[in-house]
Amino acid sequence: xxxxxxxxAGFIGSAVVRYLIEHTDARVMxxxxxxxxxxxxxxxxxxxxxxxxxxxxxxxxxxxxxGLLQAFRPDAVMHLAAESHVDRSIDGPxxxxxxxxxxxxxxxxxxxxxxxxxxRPETFRxxxxxxxxxxxDLGDTGALFQExxxxxxxxxxxxxxxxxxxxxxxxxxxxxxxxxxSNCSNNYGPYQFPEKLIPxxxxxxxxxxxxxxxxxxxxxxxxxxxxxxxxxxWTVLTRGRVGQTYNIGGHNEKRNIDVVRAIxxxxxxxxxxxxxxQTFDHLITFVTDRPxxxxxxxxxxxxxxxxxxxKPEETFESGLNKxxxxxxxxxxxxxxxxxxxxxxxxxxxxxAAR
Length: 354
Ligand code: NAD
Fold this sequence. Notes:
Bound molecules: nicotinamide-adenine-dinucleotide
Mean pLDDT: 94
Number of strands: 12
Radius of gyration: 20 Å
């Protein structure tokens, strides 16, 4: 099977690429624009595989996407490329509208044109990877997001992802493109860009900097270890029913403040193993809440288990310990991300090749 992964140099996309190379026999083409969030070092463990290829392309560039589809001739597209950070979407929604909406539209049109030319178009799949944030705020109702929950996005990020989900479903319904949609809860794990909550807190704590928690830290998110998500996406791609939506979650509802305290405890335990006595809770600082901040997200992932036999393997505790350990063991990766030097290295390589 040949799989085109968009956004495969990002956090979840790189986990998908590593999963496909390490756990399946798929041939993988990684299409990524390499924005600030895309990092070739995140796929380095598998970049030497003969089944792996990479092209630096913007999904908004229709001609370039057409060319790659014709050259690679995939059996499936896994679409993860997106602008993904809520705070950035509040400061500047433009890139979110471009990539998440216009880019998904261009990719769908390119995929539709390619799919129509296939000898066996019914075997093609287009998996659109989305978020639980499209469902909006659960408040304190105690309810869970179902696949049928009406969309009510709060942030520009969530609104553009919601719009892209609608586009994908419309291309399925109107044109017959064999689409699947997945909506997943908050991911965490190795290789996550340090602006996101868990790596941000780990790295600030290690640097002795404040750990900024929005509002009173009572917002609840449902956390899933990224490798469980990658396995779920492969399951949906290969066994999911065309036209269906699948909610993916970790059954790990946590208040933000409890996540930060758990990180502090995991770091203290990891440092103790090295013979160091260190605590981090005193660094926790409450800061002004994000505008429009949703209070609670929680996923009902029972359809994934019932229909496709998938369930998460990591608990929050085991996944968080792996994550903390990974950041402690891989300072080169995050140091290069923090100082942006991997971009300079890449530019240097490209210039040398010219
Ligand atoms: P990320 O920001 O880490 O990575 C996004 C990747 O997309 C980067 O490699 C970037 O270079 C690439 N990209 C951005 N714009 C592009 C464009 N125009 N053309 C080609 N490539 C482009 O994001 P992530 O956290 O890995 O999320 C991946 C997907 O999963 C997104 O669609 C996101 O909405 C969804 N998702 C994320 C989470 C989460 O917790 N991170 C949860 C559920 C769903």
